[in-house]
Amino acid sequence: MNSGLTLEDLTVSHDGRVVAQVSASVAPGEVLTLMGPSGSGKSTILSAVMGDLAPGFSQTGRVLLAGRELDGFPPEARHIGILYQDPLLFPHLNVASNLAFGLPRGGSRAERRAMVDAALSDIGLEGYGSRDPATLSGGQAARVALMRTLLSRPSALLLDEPFSKLDTELRARIRSLVLDRARQAGIPTILVTHDAEDAAAAGGRIVQLRSMI
Ligand SMILES: Nc1ncnc2c1ncn2[C@@H]1O[C@H](COP(=O)(O)OP(=O)(O)OP(=O)(O)O)[C@@H](O)[C@H]1O
Model ipTM? Predict the structure, then answer.
């Protein structure tokens, strides 16, 4: 059974005008790069996959995960992880609780704590568990956000330029961390980027969106 992600003639319109259109299929563990000029609809396509279009937009076509159509599923039942340029962390939870939020249910307190500690170590933030997210640098917050998403074991991963605000060295490290994990876990992944180095690191096929205006 194909457990990849398929976008079948996915078309998004606003006021009767097509603003984004794509057909693509992403195999398990493949990182497909979505490129295209500003305004060609890259972020809009990711919102359509999430089933989370802003009011006024409508979509046609199909999104299939593991061969099953996602249409009609509430967003929380889709198990699709998304990361944006600006890391979104819960401001009222400390760093450890933000990470624990991503863990699937189950397991003892001690097991969950051990998983959070291992995750902090993986992102080079040992000892940061009790910190308030507001006290983190941009790069530290980005690492926590991506690890929280990875811990939730998404069935598919959407990356909307999540590396673009990081400095060159951190960018390369965080990029490898997330792309390697996605590949190892067999997660079909779509990376939106303007950056040729990101696309090369992704190593998968590149789909170019055309500007619809
Ligand atoms: N609220 C809106 N009303 C009308 N059109 C909109 C609205 N929001 C976005 N659009 C249009 O949808 C199209 C796709 O925008 P989108 O942000 O998905 O492009 P993008 O490729 O991600 O751009 P960028 O690379 O600049 O982030 C654009 O033409 C944009 O003008």
Answer: 0.91
